[in-house]
Design brief:
Blueprint lengths: L14 H9 L3 H7 L11 H8 L10 H32 L7 H5 L1
Helix pairs in contact: 1-2
Length: about 110
């Protein structure tokens, strides 16, 4: 069955796996541990205990998080390069007469 607009997906994880994912720097786990309380939908005494001790689950070995950062950096750097090329092309085209044959200028 396919999701429809407005459908909400739920995903459940064992607490041990969640904490391990946090220790290795999985972004979803870090996001959940540091999401402000006003954005929580529900809580439990166990979750409150985890939140109180959340700094214990941070690690200097954050390879998953660093991998995510590298991936995003590459993705947005490429988009920035492409955007710069588009802007440069638009500026170039705005500065030439509409009847100019581009082949005569470029080649």
């Amino acid at each position: 069955m396919r999701n429809k607009a407005g459908d909400v997906d739920h995903e459940y994880k064992e607490l041990r796996r969640f904490l391990n994912d946090d220790i290795v720097g999985q972004t979803y786990a870090l996001d959940m541990l540091y999401t402000p309380k006003e954005f929580w939908i529900t809580s439990s005494p166990i979750w409150e205990s985890v939140i109180k001790k959340r700094s214990r689950f941070l690690s200097k070995s954050m390879s998953a998080f660093l991998g995510y950062i590298r991936q995003q950096t590459g993705k947005y750097a490429m988009k920035g390069t492409r955007m710069a090329a588009v802007i440069s092309t638009v500026e170039f085209l705005q500065n030439i007469h509409p009847s100019t044959i581009l082949g005569g200028i470029l080649f």
